[in-house]
């Protein structure tokens, strides 16, 4: 295979990695929102006094941890995006691949035509030999009857 097909394979692998990273970012975001909603402190309604439950959960430090993970995932995604080929490169690669395939097609067409000619010659020889054998058998069969 040509290097173009390897680039395509690498691009497909890169897109798969990007999909995985995007799923990871979505999970992080939804986990963060869910956890913050679950563990958020009570909010006063109509100036009423709140009784704060005692909790050892530090939502501020946990949200910073989520933010760091999300930023790392975002940085990874940006890095992968920068590795994607530009549309112009992709178009040039496609044109080069098309030209390569056309040349290969012409070459294979010539090889197939030559093979076809050889096969026709062998078929003609086989038909001639079959005709000779059939004639010989017919003659020998006729000679036995006489």
From TrEMBL:
Domain of life: Eukaryota
InterPro entries noted in UniProt: Med7/Med21-like (IPR037212), Mediator_Med21 (IPR021384)
GO CC annotations, alphabetized: mediator complex
Residue ranges the record marks as coiled coil: 98-129
Gene3D superfamilies assigned: Mediator complex, subunit Med21
A GO term for molecular function: transcription coregulator activity
Cellular localization per UniProt: Nucleus
GO-annotated biological processes: regulation of transcription by RNA polymerase II
Keyword Cell inner membrane among record annotations: no
Keywords: Activator, Coiled coil, Nucleus, Transcription, Transcription regulation
Family according to the record: Belongs to the Mediator complex subunit 21 family.
Function: Component of the Mediator complex, a coactivator involved in the regulated transcription of nearly all RNA polymerase II-dependent genes. Mediator functions as a bridge to convey information from gene-specific regulatory proteins to the basal RNA polymerase II transcription machinery. Mediator is recruited to promoters by direct interactions with regulatory proteins and serves as a scaffold for the assembly of a functional preinitiation complex with RNA polymerase II and the general transcription factors.
Assembly and binders: Component of the Mediator complex.
Matching PANTHER family: MEDIATOR OF RNA POLYMERASE II TRANSCRIPTION SUBUNIT 21, RNA POLYMERASE II HOLOENZYME COMPONENT SRB7
Protein name, as recorded: Mediator of RNA polymerase II transcription subunit 21
Lineage: Eukaryota, Viridiplantae, Chlorophyta, core chlorophytes, Chlorophyceae
């Amino acid at each position: 295979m040509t290097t173009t097909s390897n680039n395509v394979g690498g691009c497909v692998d890169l897109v798969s990695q990007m999909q995985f990273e995007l799923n990871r970012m979505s999970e992080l975001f939804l986990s963060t929102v869910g956890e913050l909603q679950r563990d958020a402190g009570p909010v006063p309604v109509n100036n009423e006094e709140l009784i704060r439950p005692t909790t050892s959960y530090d939502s501020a430090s946990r949200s910073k941890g989520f933010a760091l993970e999300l930023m790392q995932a975002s940085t990874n995604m940006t890095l992968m995006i920068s590795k994607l080929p530009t549309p112009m490169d992709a178009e040039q690669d496609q044109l080069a691949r098309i030209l390569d395939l056309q040349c290969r097609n012409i070459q294979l067409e010539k090889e197939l035509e030559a093979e076809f000619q050889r096969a026709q010659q062998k078929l003609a020889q086989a038909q001639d030999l079959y005709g000779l054998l059939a004639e010989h058998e017919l003659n020998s069969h006729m000679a036995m009857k006489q």
